[in-house]
Amino acid sequence: MYAEAKRLGVKYIIGGECGHMWRVIHQYMDTMNGPADFLEVPKSSITGTTFNNAASTKMVHISEFTADLIKNNKLKLDKSRNAHVKATFHDSCNTSRGMGLMDEPRYILDHVVDNWVEMPENTIREQTFCCGSGTGLNTDEIMELRMRSGLPRANAVKHVIDKHDVNTLSCVCAIDRATLTSLMNYWNPGCAVCGVSELVGNALVMDGENRQELDEGLRTLV
To answer: What is the pTM assigned to this prediction?
Structure first.
């Protein structure tokens, strides 16, 4: 990844919704590769914000980047485009308990969804429950183990489904985005799973857009 960034001559890297990537970059990259001196400390050319927390890795998480855009009023957003969503948020182990990325996704949700609620306090943030399928366990051969491992998280989701009519579980980890779908289908049928950036995409208002076809598609998701 860093070799490709060097080949392309970029200034810094924006990391996607991937929990393992985020933890590896922050805990092991310097030791394995040394400082990325050929890159710059990330500074948004859109808002002027310098991400000093990324001075070593030269990588900004997409949630940090998006939250900064929203804070500086650089995105046109329409929450009503997520009117079909009543969301909750899953703190992925690597991004939250491992690396402390907890506030930015919630800040984004506040601005793209009218209806979202937290799961019980002892199941989120630093006390988050595992998705049950990380560390290479996301294979169909051990589906029973996956479903058993993810039951604590599924129970917390069921709590907000029963209490608040939640219909969507959001997260900022691609592995969780893939594996939580099976978990929800098994324990909480009818609860969709999505990335936070998907909800941002739904809510984006673009100049000169023609949204009719997309809006009709969104209404059929839930």
So the answer is: 0.90
In this structure, are residues 146 and 138 in contact, taking their beta carbons and an 8 Å threshold? yes
Max distance between CA atoms of the chain, in angstroms, equals: 52
Domain residue limits at 11: 2-71
Query: Which of 93, 148, 146 shows the shortest CA–CA distance to 123?
Result: 93
Domain membership flag for residue 213: no
**CB 204 within 8 Å of CB 70:** no
Q: Tokens 């993810």: give the residue.
A: 150
> Per-residue pLDDT tens for 33-72?
888 899 999 999 999 999 999 998 999 999 999 999 999 9
Same domain (yes/no): 83, 191: yes
Question: In total, how many domains does the chain have?
Answer: 2
Domain endpoint, select from 52, 71, 90: 71
Rounded-to-integer distance, Cα 29 and Cα 43, Å: 20
Regions in the chain scoring below 70 on pLDDT: 135-136, 211-222
Residues 6+ apart with CB under 8 A from 83: 114
